[in-house]
Please model this.
Amino acid sequence: MSERQRALEALAAAQWKLALRLTTAMMAIYFGFILLVAWAKPLLGQQLVPGLSLGILLGALVIVAAWVLIRVYVRWANSHYDSAVARIRESGR
Amino acid sequence: MTSSLGSPNVAAILFFLLFVSVTLVITYWAARRTRSTEHFYAAGRSVTGLQNGLALAGDYMSAASFLGIAGLVALSGFDGLIYSIGFLVGWPVVMFLIAEPLRNLGRYTFADVVAYRLRQTPVRIAAAIGTLAVVTFYLIAQMVGAGNLIRLLFGLQYEWAIVIVGAVMMAYVLFGGMLATTWVQIVKAVLLLGGAFLLAIMVLLRFSLNPLALFASAAEQFGARVLAPGQLVADPLDALSLGLALMLGTAGLPHILMRFYTVPDAKTARTSVSYATAFIGFFYLLTFILGFGAMVIVGPDAIKAVDKGGNMAAPLLAEAVGGEGFLGFIAAVAFATILAVVAGLTLSGAAALSHDLWVNVVRGGHAPEHEQFVVARIATVLGGVASIALGIVFKGQNVAYMVGLAFAIAASANFPALVLSVFWRPFTTRGAQASMIVGTLSALLLIFLSPTIQVSVLGRASAPFPLRNPGLVTIPLSFVVGIVVSLLTKESEAGERFPSMQHRLHLGPEADQA
Model:
């Protein structure tokens, strides 16, 4: 296996590992929320301040979590991934 | 409060005619640039990240989410929010697993990617069946929704509404292809985001711009229960099943996946998902305010008096805070929303018919460019006529479950095959075929046996299958079938092509020539 092929496979493995971790994190957050909705109704109905129930706060936070996870991926991809791809492309010339 | 809903609204008609005129001018402009199949399906791969982000958001924010979720929240409070959240969480999955591989490996349809290292004919046929099933159910839901909505908003007869939507949408797709469809989506997304934002601000002005004061006022008038989970999620398994289908279905919707071919490279595909998720998340946060605003300002009884399902909550709210002119604007935005979503669906259906079935199956991948272009347009006309016919056939039927069904099929038929093909080396042609066919059929069968059809539509007392959405069973089933069949049918060529696919996946199609 060439040096180049090895670098590509290492990059593919790193990308897959991060993608899987972030996907699992999103699923855990969302399904955690759904299970709370199903099993902890009175808890989620608690109002932290008038108008803001724990359920509404957590729901909004799930949306924020989706943004944050995407941000994490984009930062990694823009810095590490893109430069690694550029290096592998160069080495093929 | 009396409402002018249901009688012809001059402002609504003017705003709508303005939208149609502007979008037809765009179509004329796009038609002059649409000279090849690549333009027709992929807008010449010239769309920027921000533009594609808006277009993705436009494709995804259907009238069902604008009107339906606002209505659900207005009638049942917190429970409606569960949908807002479920519709957003699929986007990170699209980002992590789908967007960049799709851009680098395919040309026009998601079947390009599934079939990349497998045998073309069997995979394309199975993928086209999955695509057409998703598109058909999504289209029926949109068309029937359009007919009812336009009757309520504009006082126009149901059949006329369907024919107008079908004809205008066909004009966009037939003449302007993906370029026109993309710009129609962008205009619509800006109008929808702007309209929803303006409406939310006008609501919040009554609560000193504090959403919590609005929620507190809802709790005061209708009890603290409106801020707490209610009966919608009675059974945790049911909730998980729906959640799984919404989440993974997003990553299997053909009209969404097709958008990743319109950008120049994988990095732009990545940027466009970032923008799309930001816009869609913002929009769903606004639905919190619109829903509770309609509950407090219009009132659940007044909303139910106009439409039992609550779909008129947002338009009624617009009328209450901004008068008839603002109602007209919001009504026109809702109409524009349906038009744009239907156009995107028709284009992806046409691509499955012409690119997957005609060019790659019938003609074995070797059709001359002009023939591909002509067949694509014939398929568009077929799709347009079919959507008008389906809209009229399903008049008066309960089609609310069809969006959920479309997501369930997308999640069970398309998503597993796509992921396994890109990331799992032992995947074979037979495995892909089995996974997609079993995913489609099991989703259809279990929906039919579920309370969604048996109880809600057919009026029986109970259903043989307990879950309202089959995702929890059919998605894992489709993965397992794909894996087991692949392990039983060795296909050495598929494995041998894996490294070259991986090469192109990361380095892009340009690297192939190197």
Observations:
- Chain A has one domain: 3-91.
- Chain A touches chain B through 55 residues (CB under 8 Å).
- Strands of chain A lie at 47-49, 52-53.
- Chain A is about 85% helix and 5% strand.
